[in-house]
Amino acid sequence: MASSLDYGNVSHHRLGRAGHAMSGWGSLRWYPKITRIQNHAAVDVGRGSETLMTFARGDLFRAARLLALRQRSRALVVTGFYIPAARRPAAESDGPAGAVELCAALRGIGGEGWLVSDQPCGPVVTAAAQDTLPDDHILIAPSGAAFELWFDDIRALVRHEHIDSVIFIERVGPSFDGIPKNMRGADMLQWTAPLSRLSRLGLHTIGIGDGGNEIGMGRITPSAIADIVLHGETIACRVPTHELIVAGTSNWGGHALVCALYALGCRSVASLLDEHWHHAVLGRIAAAGGLDGVTLLNTPTVDGLSETQYYRQINVLSRLARS
Predict the structure, then answer these.
(1) What topology is assigned to 28-322 in CATH?
(2) Running DSSP on this structure, what letter comes out for residue 200?
(3) DSSP strand pairing (90-91 vs 82-83)
(4) Domain boundaries, the chain
(5) Helical axes 250-263 vs 31-41, angle rounded to 10°
(6) pLDDT tens across 107-119, in order?
(7) Number of C-beta neighbours around residue 34 at 10 A
(8) What confidence category does residue 10 fall into, taking pLDDT thresholds of 50, 70 and 90?
(9) Largest Cα–Cα distance of the chain, in whole Å?
(10) What is the rounded distance in angstroms from the CA atom of residue 53 to the CA atom of residue 63?
(11) Is the pLDDT of residue 19 over 60?
């Protein structure tokens, strides 16, 4: 297996079983195109994502190339950010949509994805995966003492299914005092199962986030997050990942990874580049009570953006992948 940081070992491949045009996947010739995708995914919506992204340049290329070269990568895709302060508390829409897209992409390229979340976020995450994943590929962690038994089962699943990666997308992680916090600096421990422990299973890890408090942001110097993000000195997540994809919204980051796979020749993910696919997933999330993480309203929107703003960026990333 090629290292995610090893550019030189693999430059010529034949057609893969999943129908990928594999020629040149190991070559840096694709790096400029995927860098454009990365730059557009990081368009700032008010949290400093464009600046944060500069601390992880090249990580989108490295993450996509690793998944593309493996072809049959099998990953846990971890998401879910609960909003207890809303009138009707539920998980937010940013994260679950991108996580389901990544699971669909992994299955499309011949691999497999298991969607992972916890009980507070369970109804929204499960609804997001409807018609995309079988029920036994949706893994919801229980609260309290039952978590340890569940985690033992996950370790057994990793061994039995030869799972090789963990992808965290918009999943809050512990800050440097050990407490996960939301963007306002509020303590989220009560509503957050310790899924960051999945980063210590010895698997390859990819993080996707937009605000500094998500698992993976430990890859960035804490002082940088403190300088760039409001409350950054207290909310910065201490957990790093091998690669980190910083985006304006985490769903854009997930879509950027799928678009990078397409750009590398994984044409089997083409349906995920269609705006209508994304409308359907966000519709299911809203129907299950999912919330816009900024307005705290039960609408099929993301992070306070209008639908026009949100889908414009989805389409820009898709066009860059196809060009």
Answers:
(1) inorganic pyrophosphatase (n-terminal core) (3.90.1640)
(2) G
(3) antiparallel
(4) 28-322
(5) 160
(6) 999 999 999 999 9
(7) 25
(8) very low
(9) 55
(10) 14
(11) no
